[in-house]
Design goal:
By secondary structure, this protein is an alpha/beta fold. The chain is built from twelve helices and seven strands. The protein has helices spanning 44-63, 65-72, 76-92, 102-150, 171-181, 205-219, 247-250, 255-261, 267-270, 276-294, 299-318, 322-344; strands spanning 38-42, 96-100, 157-165, 189-197, 225-233, 240-246, 263-265. It has a five-stranded mixed beta sheet. Helix 6 (205-219) links the parallel strand 4 and strand 5 (225-233).
């Protein structure tokens, strides 16, 4: 039987014709991937500038400290540059997002804060160094002069000298004054002279005066010395001789006057002990005064006066140095006073 199909396909199994394979459809084009948005980090440039500034300041402080302080005080310029950087990119950056570099901004602010703190502390540190240098210079000058005098006397032993300001308030107020106006040319100072005699165990008041008087005369040549405190010590088993006078007094002292002004602390006084019984007595007096003070009466003042008088006389009787004894009496009395007030409240 004839085949009417002009395009017969390949014969299939068992003589059947196979269907034609349809063509593969074209693949649609792949859309381009979205380009990532370009972000600008703000703050990094300022941090770099701040680090450069620190790198310049550190060697400058080491070798030229007088030029470093004015530059440190310009630290707020870091914040000015940071603000300018943020403002510039906020107005001009149109190509993407702005990303604030939090770490860089924090570091820039921290560097500014530390620099401002250093600018406030550095002058005080420099003034403290100048203050200690000035003290050392004065002390060394006095020591050298007194050493020459002692070499001419019958004195065996060592000694120390300390010079410190006698005016201008406390230590730190004087340091602050140096920071503000520099070291004064007419520096008034006090001098402590600590003589430690050796080889002698029976120094008499006359011998102590003979040693101190030439030193006092030598100190008159130092125009800035306004006050002296001098001690002659031959050990705790011997007398301690001390003198504490202003320039107006010690410059006119002779042998007789000096003997009258020298304070003598005996070995018994130096080695005496503040007893527990005394502490309890003064604590009780303070306790009663605290209760009376809470009631608004004048009994507290009377008890206070009695406590100090008792402490003074007890110190004399037992050989305790009066100043030290009264300090301990005052401490015990104050503790009792507070306890009395607290219990009453």
């Amino acid at each position: 039987m004839p085949n009417d199909n002009p395009n017969p396909g390949p014969a299939g199994p068992a003589g059947f014709a196979q269907e034609p394979i349809p063509p593969i459809p074209p693949v649609p084009p792949i859309p381009p991937l979205p380009q990532p948005v370009k972000a600008r980090r703000v703050g990094t440039a300022t941090l770099g500038l701040a680090l450069i500034m620190i790198g310049v300041l550190i060697p400058l402080m080491m070798f030229f400290p007088e030029y470093a302080l004015p530059m440190i005080r310009m630290a707020p310029l870091v914040l000015l540059v940071l603000g300018a950087e943020i403002l510039f990119y906020a107005l001009t950056w149109k190509q993407g997002k702005l990303k604030y570099d939090g770490l860089s901004i924090f570091m820039a602010i921290a560097i500014t804060f530390c620099s401002l703190t250093a600018s406030a502390v550095l002058p005080l540190v420099q003034s403290e160094v100048q203050y200690q240098k000035l003290r050392e210079e004065k002390s060394n000058a006095v020591y050298k002069s007194l050493r020459e005098v002692l070499d001419t006397l019958d004195y065996s032993g060592d000694f120390d000298v300390w010079a410190y300001p006698s005016s201008g308030g406390s230590h730190w107020s004087y340091v602050e004054a140096i920071a503000n106006s520099g070291a004064p040319e007419d520096w008034s100072y006090s001098v402590n002279v600590d003589l430690r005699a050796s080889g002698k165990s029976d120094i008499t008041p006359e011998q102590a005066a003979n040693t101190m008087l030439p030193l006092l005369k030598e100190l008159e040549s130092f125009s800035g010395v306004e006050r002296i405190h001098m001690e002659l010590d031959a050990g705790r088993e011997n007398n301690l001789y001390s003198l504490n006078e202003s320039r107006n007094i010690f410059r006119h002292l002779n042998q007789k006057d000096l003997l009258e002004r020298i304070e003598v602390t005996t070995p018994k006084q130096r080695n005496a002990v503040y007893t527990q019984e005394e502490y309890e007595q003064q604590y009780q007096a303070g306790f009663e005064a605290g209760q009376a003070a809470f009631d608004g009466s004048e009994e507290a003042n009377r008890l206070l006066e009695n406590a100090y008088n008792e402490g003074y006389h007890a110190g004399q009787e037992q050989g305790v140095p009066l100043e030290e004894h009264n300090r301990m009496v005052a401490d015990a009395y104050a503790e009792g006073y507070e306890a009395g007030r607290n219990e009453t409240e």
